[in-house]
Known about the structure:
- By secondary structure, the chain is of the alpha+beta class.
- It has helices spanning 24-27, 60-65, 119-127, and strands at residues 28-31, 45-46, 51-52, 70-72, 77-80, 91-94, 100-102, 107-111.
- It has one domain (27-127).
- The protein is built from three helices and eight strands, in the order αβββαβββββα.
- A four-stranded antiparallel sheet has the order 1-8-5-6. A two-stranded antiparallel ribbon has the order 2-3.
Amino acid sequence: MEVKAKEPKVRFGEFTGKWEECRFNEIYKKINEKNDLSFGPDKIISVANMYYKPMRDSTKSKIDYMKTYNLMRVGDIAFESNKSKSYSYGRFVENIIGDGIVSHVFDVFRPITSYDLFFWKYDVILKS
């Protein structure tokens, strides 16, 4: 049985307490906001690379299909379930670029409480 550390290895000056363990659904909620076409083809977010990847073909059928896209606000995270050598179980990707839309194949989660937008980004760097 693995014993989890109660004290962090890296500390910030103001932090003196023990780790607080919580479940994912205590800090994020799954959202199902669909695009009402407030966001156009120029606001499609590439989850794999976290940049705007505009739709090449903007025909009427493609524009109507954008109604199936999920809204993704700054600070939301998308679950990319594609497995790879680097991500055996998929991965969570935080939106740090701006509000936009993502394909309906991605689940989008919104933070329940406020936090520093770059927390996860730097948390991963510190652990590497």
